[in-house]
Write a structure and sequence with these properties.
By secondary structure, the chain is of the alpha/beta class. Helix content is about 25%, strand content about 35%. The strands form two sheets. A six-stranded mixed beta sheet has the order 1-8-7-4-2-3, with helices on one face. Strands 5-6 form a two-stranded antiparallel ribbon. Strand 2, helix 2 and strand 3 form a beta-alpha-beta unit. Helix 1 packs across helix 3 and helix 2 runs parallel beside helix 3. The two termini are about 45 Å apart. About 20% of the residues are buried. About 10% of the residues have low confidence.
C-alpha cells in the first residue's frame, strides 16, 4: 500500500468519525431472527478489529473500543476473556459528485429592472441556469456483533454520513457520538433509555 493511499485512508477515517454530529447521519441496523441478545452476558473484541491495522491510527481503534465498551457495559454486559459475543468495527468510504441545476433570474441579459410585465431578469423572461458541482465523501461505520460460539453475525449497526473538513477536529468525541447513535438501535436497551 502506497504512502499516499495510507494517508488518504487515515484522513478519511479521521473525518468519518466526526460525522456523527452532522445532521445528515443515517443509522440502520439488523438483528438475526430468533436471537435474543439479552440472553448473553459477556463481550470482547476481534483482534484486530477491521479498523485496526498498519494503515490506521492505533488511537482510532482504542477510541472505538472505549465507546463500544461504554455502550455494552451500560446494557449489563461485561467484558471477558472468553466472551459470548465478539465485536468488530470497520469503516468504508466512497467519493461522490453532486450536480445541482437551478434557474437563476440574474443570469438573464435583460434590463434588470421592474417594468410593466415583471422583472426583466426573471425566469419569465428567459433567465438562466446555474449549475453547481460538489465533490464529497460518503462514509459508513459498521459495528458487527458476532456469537463467539457459532461465529454467526447476530447484530449489525451502520451509520452513514457525509464527511466535512470540520469533522476532522474532534475524533474521540465523534467516535463516541457515532457509536452512541448506532447503539440506539441495539436490541438490548440501556436502563433509562
Amino acid at each position: 500500500m502506497t504512502m499516499k493511499l495510507k494517508a488518504a485512508i487515515t484522513g478519511i477515517l479521521a473525518t468519518l468519525l466526526v460525522a456523527a454530529c452532522a445532521p445528515s447521519v443515517k443509522v440502520r441496523s439488523d438483528v438475526a431472527p430468533d436471537v435474543d441478545l439479552s440472553g448473553y452476558q459477556s463481550y470482547g473484541f476481534f483482534t484486530p478489529m477491521g479498523i485496526e491495522g498498519e494503515q490506521y491510527s492505533s488511537l482510532l481503534g482504542q477510541h472505538f473500543r472505549d465507546a463500544v465498551g461504554e455502550q455494552m457495559k451500560s446494557r449489563g454486559f461485561s467484558e471477558g476473556a472468553s466472551p459470548q459475543l465478539q465485536v468488530n468495527v470497520s469503516i468504508g468510504a466512497k467519493d461522490k459528485v453532486r450536480v445541482d441545476s437551478y434557474q437563476d433570474p440574474y443570469l438573464y441579459g435583460g434590463y434588470g429592472r421592474y417594468g410593466g410585465y415583471g422583472y426583466y431578469g426573471s425566469p419569465w423572461h428567459g433567465g438562466g441556469t446555474r449549475t453547481t458541482v460538489r465533490e464529497y465523501t460518503e462514509a459508513q461505520v459498521y459495528i458487527d456483533v458476532v456469537d463467539a460460539g457459532s461465529h454467526e453475525l447476530v447484530w449489525q449497526g451502520v451509520a452513514t454520513f457525509t464527511l466535512t473538513e470540520k469533522m476532522q477536529q474532534q475524533v474521540r468525541e465523534t467516535v463516541f457520538l457515532t457509536v452512541s447513535s448506532i447503539f440506539e438501535q441495539f436490541p438490548v436497551a440501556a436502563p433509562g433509555s
